[in-house]
Each structure stands twice: as structure tokens, then as C-alpha cells.
Amino acid sequence: MRPFEYMNPLTVDEAISLLGLNGHDYERGMRPLAGVHPLAGGTDLLTLMKADIAAPSHLVNIKRLSGLPKDIEETSQGLLLGALTTLTDIETHPVIQQRCPLLAQAAAVAATPQLRNMATLGGNLLQRPRCWYFRNHLLPCWLKGGTECPAHDGANRFHALFGGGPCYAVHPSDLAPALLALDAQVRLRGRGGTRTLPVAEFFSLPTVDRRHETEIKRDELVLSVLIPRSPEGTRSVYLKAMDRKVWAFALVAVAAAVRLDGRRVVDARLVLGGVAPIPWRASAAEHVLLGAKATDELFAGAAEAALSGVEPLRHNAYKGPLAQNLIRRALTTITQREVAGV
Amino acid sequence: VIGAVTQGLGFALTEERVVDTRNGVVLNANLEEYKVPTVLDVPFIVHAPVDLPDSEANHTGAKGIGEPPLVPTAPAIANALFDAIGVRIRHAPLSRPRLLEALAEHPLPSQHSSLLLEGRYGEGAAIAVTPAPHAPKRAEDRKGQGGRV
Fold first, then answer.
1. Which of A132, A296, A313 is the best mutation test for B, with the most CBs of B within 10 A?
2. Which of A99, A149, A255, A266 is most enclosed, with most CB atoms within 10 A?
3. Active-site residue B67, yes or no?
4. pLDDT classification of A75: cutoffs 50, 70, 90
């Protein structure tokens, strides 16, 4: 790890005024990532620094900023989760467990208890991919400013089924697919002021000019995430397939939120994790579900639609059936009582 | 003994060194991606002490036994897999992609597909394929698969 300076501002605006100074990002061909960076839980940033993928000149401690919330608040618009809320807080919060169980479940299956105690909501959304080419400083890669993706013709069993090219890394967050399924919004603050983006727009496939998985700017901080109140009767679940029982990133994950009227599906949001550089909404599967009667045949059809037309890489084709079975299991799990009588 | 069986479990199911063949770089030279079993991956292991001290090797009567249980663990798991799905997988680890490839070549009888949906939430390692209680008829299987078994 390279030397850096540690800064302790008192307010959000003071921190923002420091962020992004002397910054250069991968898109300018500079390696490793440099400049002034915010530090909260540090569970991702420190691993990037140890691997010499990030080498900030300054770290700005944002853990004690007045105005950067670290708790969960009920508001008239919905649940407001502060950027500094830890994964443990999300996992164990009774209102989240009751009102959006898939988010509590997603937090519970992420990482390990030690990491969940440190890791924050904001950092979880901003964590970089675990791609072993991206994380290896010996190997050039497009996301780090290179010309091509070595995973495309390389060892790509953990890589993207959807949205790949020029980068084939998958997004590692467990919370992100759940928040997209909940139609949450991210509040950001930068030198230009505060703005709010739906999670669906906050995450965005990397481009030549923005080699990053989100729309956040270098001088911006995530302030909070708003989860609007789901209509009464919405059921949700988060399922994650891993190479072992705990402490692994998702091979494939499914975040599902469904509402039934009798046995008819009146609302369905299905999001896949581990299959694309950003959380991936399975719109085709949602279309199959909407308005139809909840049966196992319908769920199989939705699972098929979710993966139709996919062109896997050499080593990641197994993610197709894995995702389909996970979708079927998720839909069966949350609609079980209704389906039982069919 | 328990440690060796645990190592055998990792060898059989998750541990694999991945090298980029174009440049020889090991891609998973860390404990995040070279996956050893965690506490939750290891079942209860029955350890039966055998009371046969070796008084010649040393004065305490101890015998070295740490590594031998590592040897049969992976074959035992591979045999269990064969017993469950009737397909031999000959490369360690017995990973999810290899299992699905093998099943694509030798599909399970259709009634077993419903088993995919059984099992509880959170069983990460078991989500893709729940082993079917389908014991192949040994003699037939051997005949059918020619030299594969």
C-alpha cells in the first residue's frame, strides 16, 4: 500500500470540497486510481489499495460528518436509510425485516459478520467489481484504462451474461439488486448541490468516458437511500447462489418482489445479481408474469424468458440454468400459499 | 482427522487454482477466490479413536494420522455424487459448472426436475442442483456408459 494523508472534516460540504481534488480516473489512462477519496467502512477501498488498484493521495474520513446519517428513519415518503448505515443494521432492523424482507435477507447473506459490522450502505453500492483481472495489478484491463477486457477470452466463469462489453465484470453488491427491486432512490450531494437518482439510473453500464458502474461524480457523496412504501400485500425474497455457504460473492442472485390479487400476479419486479456489470432487471420475465395466474408453469415460463437470447461466454453458461432455477424457486417461495391450492 | 476431512471437502468441492493460460498469472491467489470450506460448509465429522499406541516410534505412544483421511474424502464424495445422479465427474473440484455439464450430457429422469425447487432459503451450495435420490442400477449403468465408469 502506498502512503496517503488522512483528513477529518466536520461537515458534509467540507468533505465534498475536498473530494475529487487532483483526481484522475482510469478513463485518462492513469493507473492506479489516484486523488482524494472518501473513506467510510473501508472494506472495499482498503483491498483496492492493498492490491495497488487504488492509490489515493488523501483519504477523507466521512464516518463522523455531521449531516451524513447512519440510521434508518421512517418518513412520509418511505424508509430513509442513511449512507453510513451498516449492513448489520439493515439485516437486523425490524421494520426492514417486516416491510422489505428481501433487503434484510440480501444484507444477511453478504460477506461475513465482521465485514457487515464495518461495511456501509453507501460503500456497498459503490464497491468495485471482484473481477480477478480488474483486481490484479499485473494484468491490464479495460475497466482500469486498458484497451480490452482480458476476461472475454480468458477465465470468465464468474463473468457477465448480460450487458457485457467492453467490460464483462459483474456487479458484486447484494443490496443493489434488492434496492432496484424495491424501486429505491439514491440521494447524492456534490459541489453542484443535491440530486436524487432512481437506483435504476444510479447504476449504469461503464462507458469509455466513465469507467465506473455508477453515475456518481468524483466530488459527490451518497447521502441516503429512500425506499418508497410498497403496496400492501407485496411479498419479496432474495436468493443467492454461492460456491460455498457463506463468505462468497453471488454466482447468481435473484431479488424478487411480487404482489398477487387472489392467484393473479398484479405486480412483479425481478432483478438478477451476478450476471451483469450492474444489477440486471429481468423485464421480459416480469412481462410474462404480469396479469397471469401464479402457477409453476408460469414461473418456468418467466424463468425461460429472463434468459432468452443470452449468449454466454466460454465458461459462464452454467449461470443460465442457475438463474432460471433460482427465479423459479424465488417465485415459488413468495407465492407458496396461493399456489398450494392450484 | 477432522482437519484432514475438512481439507478433503475443499479439495472435492471448491478449491481450485485458476491460471490465465495466456500469461501464466494465477488469478485467485487469495483466500477470497481460492475457496476453502468455512465452518458452515463442514458437516459434523465422526472421529473414532483407535486405541493402539505405538510404543516403538516414541515414548508417548502417539502415531501420525493427520493426513491419511484427506486421501479418501474426495473419492467418497465423487462416489456419492455418482450414486445420486448416475454420472461420473472425473475432475476436482466437483463444481457447479461441471455438474451441470455432466447433467446436460446425461440428463436426470424428468421427475427429478421438481427436486430443483426443494430445499430451504439460504442453502447457497445446494441451490443449483439438489441431488436426486436416484440410485442408478449399477450393472446397467456400467454397461450403458462403456468405458466411462
1. A132
2. A255
3. yes
4. very high
